[in-house]
Amino acid sequence: MDKEQEKFKRVMRMSKIEVPFEDFEQRVMQRIVRVEKAKMGALSNKKCAIAFFLLGTICGMILNNYLLAKIQVIDIAADYKNYIGIFCQLVFAVLICFFCLQLWRLIAIQRYKSSH
């Protein structure tokens, strides 16, 4: 029985983990807290990004319609009016697509981080 207890004690001593620093556990816990705060901040950023995207889209549509109305009043050839109008709408559409792509990437990053 004593031999078995001695073997058990040796095995238990071998399984003892040496912590590299005295405040190792505290550092790990602080790091976990920082990561959790960052996740909450990212969720807030995602909500703000969606809200400002929608606000920007609405303001862009209003501005685009205003510019098109002003272009129609200007005294230039009809062809130039059409080209300028198409250019304004094309720029708006490209910007909307670019910001949709950025918003999509932000949401994909959030999903990836939350799953891992």
Give the topology string: H per helix, E per strand: HHH
Query: Rough shape?
Result: rod-shaped
Could you tell me the radius of gyration in angstroms?
A: 31 Å
The proportion of strand residues reads under 5%
Structural class determined from secondary elements = mainly alpha
Helix content: over 70%
The beta-strand count equals 0
Low-confidence stretches: none
* Average pLDDT taken over every residue: 82
**Straight-line distance between termini:** 48 Å
Seen as an oligomer or otherwise, the chain set is single chain
| Main sheet properties | none
Number of helices: 3
Describe this structure in words.
- By secondary structure, the chain is an all-alpha fold.
- The chain has helices at 2-14, 24-73, 78-115.
- Helix 2 (24-73) packs antiparallel against helix 3.
- The longest helix has 50 residues, at 24-73.
- The two termini are 48 Å apart.
